[in-house]
From TrEMBL, chain A:
SMART domains: AAA, CBS
A Pfam family: CBS
Membrane topology: Peripheral membrane protein
Protein name: Quaternary amine transport ATP-binding protein
Automatic annotation (TrEMBL), chain B:
Gene Ontology CC annotation, any one: plasma membrane
Spans traversing the lipid bilayer: 26-48, 60-80, 86-104, 136-162, 182-205
Organism: Cerasibacillus terrae
Gene3D superfamilies, sorted: MetI-like
Gene Ontology process terms (BP): amino acid transport; glycine betaine transport; transmembrane transport
Compartments in which it is found: Cell membrane
Source species taxonomy: Bacteria, Bacillati, Bacillota, Bacilli, Bacillales
Protein name per its UniProtKB record: ABC transporter permease
PROSITE patterns on file: ABC_TM1
């Protein structure tokens, strides 16, 4: 699909941004370029759609040297998403999404249909088509930014830290959504990031760069298991290498299987009693089939105790859950980064099966620091 | 009070003449700005892309701006003779600075991220200009035209000294007769009115051309 061969970029004045890079990217692969700032990852990406021209070496897309192609046509055949989103404020969402099709002279009718179709792909209401970008939240805007890159159905998409400017929770959601989208559409993605968690979560292969050179290429698991050198190890961070220990794979293995829960038709006084008995300050709310509905905590009870009497009236239904077969390292990261005290764990049908708290994380860390040593005779 | 009555009588007797001069005055100002726009907008776009030239262009247009209007008209008169064309030429020169400056600023202020995403999506340079830079800079460019037009209307008044006609002619006539207050006002009031209306009209246009959510705002207000 994409072949980067002996490519270098030297700026005027002799600064070498990219130094003799070789890389083969297969069709449908998700490649993440990662490295400290100034390592040449963004430059490498921009060499592919010739926003920056290579000084030496060649890049081939589907066997064709990109130097031989018309630069405008080349760019129209490659999706491009940037960190600043870059939606045009004077165009509606529909116009923004269907911009490349417009440049390719698709008829209006077809463009319109394409925009609608894509919006459906990310579960956004068609009424957004006529809105303007500044009426959308940051997360929604970047969704549109991604759709815009998909509009003309390019096989290859370049993304420059697309989720970098979003808040952690929006970013997490968008990453999941995008990964699913990418897998179902079979696009080849070249993704630049400085966020290791993002790279580990999304990429099939990670390319770690430093000072314009590739330090290591491999799947996230390979890199976590065998960092090529001290630089990679440091860049990954000790906690990630620890988290990737093979004997702890899914959340199910570490969760507390007896979360404190209450059914939604119970009274508030019952809830308070249960909190006192179990020595907790919040309760997960389930229905009679043990399907997770929400949570209540002590503040919510305190605020509403005079007005309402039963749990379902005051519970908060907007809560973050994790599916029980999720990889442990993703969950750990979510808890640590988003500052959550606990995450409820559910099965495929949203039945509450357990809970992971910060305390359970302490156990994992303890195990990974001391557990191994006990095994050594 | 007498002056007002006199003024009224003047208008009643000479309304077609005043209207003619009003029209002439407006056309002179508008043509001056229009011709300037035809040159200045492309120049503004050009120097926005070649920033090192902007210094030269701005010093040149700044120098024009410092020449007193009467002197400018007199010098141009030596070359072009009497009449409205000379005034239009002067207005053209005075309009260059505001239009070039605003075009330059408007284009330069377009968010670099938008330029990059446009380029990355495969827009040609011309498409980038037509679909991104100009629409986003349009309201700033319009503000330049607005300034130019208002300046133009006031300078066109002086044009009467070199026989171009216009409302200035009425004012000059007023200054030449004894007790000409009413006649001076008869020329000055429409001039001021024209400047104010032009300013408001262009301001309205400028707002209309603001990029972004205007259309949906209208829809929302219709809905309510």
């Amino acid at each position: 699909m994409l072949k980067i061969k002996n490519v270098s970029k030297v700026y005027e004045g002799g600064k070498k941004a990219v130094n003799n890079i070789n890389l083969h990217i297969k069709k449908g692969e998700f490649i993440a370029f990662i490295g400290p700032s100034g390592c040449g990852k963004t430059t490498t990406m921009k060499l592919i759609n010739r926003l920056i021209e290579t000084t030496e070496g060649d890049i081939y897309i589907e066997g064709e040297n990109i130097r031989d192609k018309n630069v405008v046509e080349l760019r129209r055949s490659i999706g491009y998403v940037i960190q600043q989103i870059g939606l045009f404020p004077h165009m509606t969402i529909a116009e923004n999404i269907a911009l490349v099709p417009k440049l390719l002279n698709w008829p209006l009718e077809k463009r319109r249909k394409r925009a609608e179709e894509l919006l459906k792909l990310v579960n956004m209401d068609p009424s957004y088509l006529e809105r303007y970008p500044d009426e959308l939240s940051g997360g929604q805007q970047q969704r549109i930014g991604v759709l815009r890159a998909l509009a003309a159905d390019p096989p290859l998409i370049l993304m420059d830290e697309p989720f970098g400017a979003l808040d952690p929770i929006t970013r997490d959601g968008l990453q999941d959504e995008f990964k699913n989208l990418q897998q179902s559409l079979g696009k080849t993605i070249v993704f630049v990031t400085h966020d290791m968690d993002e790279a580990i979560k999304l990429a099939d292969r990670i390319v770690i760069m430093r000072a314009g050179e590739i330090v290591q290429v491999g799947s996230p698991d390979d890199i976590l298991r065998e960092p090529a050198n001290d630089f990679v190890e440091e860049f990954l961070g000790k906690h990630r290498i620890m988290e990737s220990r093979p004997n702890l794979q899914t959340v199910k293995q570490i969760m507390n299987k007896n979360p404190v829960s209450i059914t939604e038709d119970e009274s508030l006084s019952q809830a308070i009693k249960m909190m006192r008995d179990k020595k907790v300050d919040s309760l997960l709310v389930v229905d009679n089939d043990n399907i997770l509905k929400g949570f209540i905590d002590i503040e919510m009870i305190e605020e509403n105790r005079k007005k309402q009497s039963s749990v379902y009236q005051i519970m908060e239904t907007n809560l973050y859950t994790v599916e029980q077969n999720t990889l442990l390292r993703d969950t750990v990261r979510k808890i640590l980064r988003n500052g959550m005290r606990y995450v409820p764990i559910v099965d495929e049908e949203k039945h509450l099966t357990g809970i992971v708290t910060r305390a359970s994380l302490a156990n994992i860390v303890y195990d990974s620091i001391w557990g191994d040593q006990e095994l050594i005779p | 009070m007498d002056t007002l009555i006199e003024l009224w009588n003047y208008y009643a007797q000479n309304y077609s003449y005043v209207w003619e001069e009003f029209y002439k005055h407006f056309l002179m100002s508008a043509y001056g700005v229009l011709f300037a726009a035809i040159i200045a907008i492309p120049v503004g776009i050009f120097i926005a892309r070649h920033a090192h030239l902007s210094k030269w262009v701005f010093s040149f247009t700044n120098i024009i701006q410092t020449i007193p209007a009467l002197a400018m008209l007199a010098v141009l008169m030596l070359v072009m003779g009497l009449g409205p064309n000379t005034v239009i030429a002067a207005l053209f020169l005075y309009s260059l600075l505001p239009i070039i400056r605003n075009t330059y600023t408007g284009i330069r202020n377009v968010d670099q991220a938008l330029i990059e995403s446009g380029r990355g999506m495969g827009m040609t340079k011309f498409q980038l200009l037509r679909m991104v830079e100009l629409p986003l800079a349009l309201s700033v460019i319009m503000a330049g035209l607005r300034t130019a037009l208002v300046i133009g209307i006031s300078i066109a008044t002086i044009g009467a000294f070199i026989g171009s006609g216009g409302l200035g002619a009425i004012i000059i006539r007023g200054t030449n007769v004894t007790d000409g207050t009413a006649i001076i006002l008869a020329g000055a009031i429409p001039t001021a009115l024209m400047a104010v209306v032009a300013d408001l009209g262009m301001g309205w246009l400028e707002k209309r051309l603001m990029p972004g959510r205007k259309k949906s705002n209208n829809e929302q207000s219709n809905a309510i």
